[in-house]
Design goal:
mainly alpha, Serine Threonine Protein Phosphatase 5, Tetratricopeptide repeat, 6 helices, 72% helix
């Protein structure tokens, strides 16, 4: 087989491989529109919390890894709502899923733990 025939037979295969379906690596859910809505109207924090939880649940249900930062952001929103133990659980989960976030997540766990201690000392 001549060299040009080999090249011309390979080109269509390469082009067809490029047309293969695109599969998402992570299950982002409704993250982008929810975050955009939250930035436009911070009063919609409840909708963002619900959306992040749904994204995390969907990723788990489909056996996909959660996108980087989703659990950390969800934990931060929980922390703002005074749910420190739940926030710590999300920060720890983010750290397990994304080891490169360890330094930041350890800091957030420390912050959440100190917030929890302050809240507990204020209760009678």
């Amino acid at each position: 087989m001549s060299r040009s025939k080999v090249v011309f037979s390979i080109i269509p295969m390469v082009m067809l491989a490029g047309c293969a379906g695109h599969q998402e690596k992570y299950s982002w859910g409704n993250y982008d529109p929810s975050l955009y809505d939250y930035y436009k109207s911070p009063a919609k924090v409840g909708e963002l919390v619900t959306s992040l939880q749904a994204s995390i649940d969907a990723a788990s249900a489909h056996g996909q890894p959660t996108p980087p930062g989703i659990r950390a952001e969800y934990g931060y929103l929980l922390l703002q709502q005074g749910k420190a133990p739940e926030a710590v659980a999300q920060f720890q989960s983010e750290e397990r899923a994304w080891p490169e976030s360890k330094v930041f997540m350890d800091h957030m766990i420390k912050v959440a733990s100190s917030d929890q201690t302050v809240a507990e000392s204020k209760s009678p």
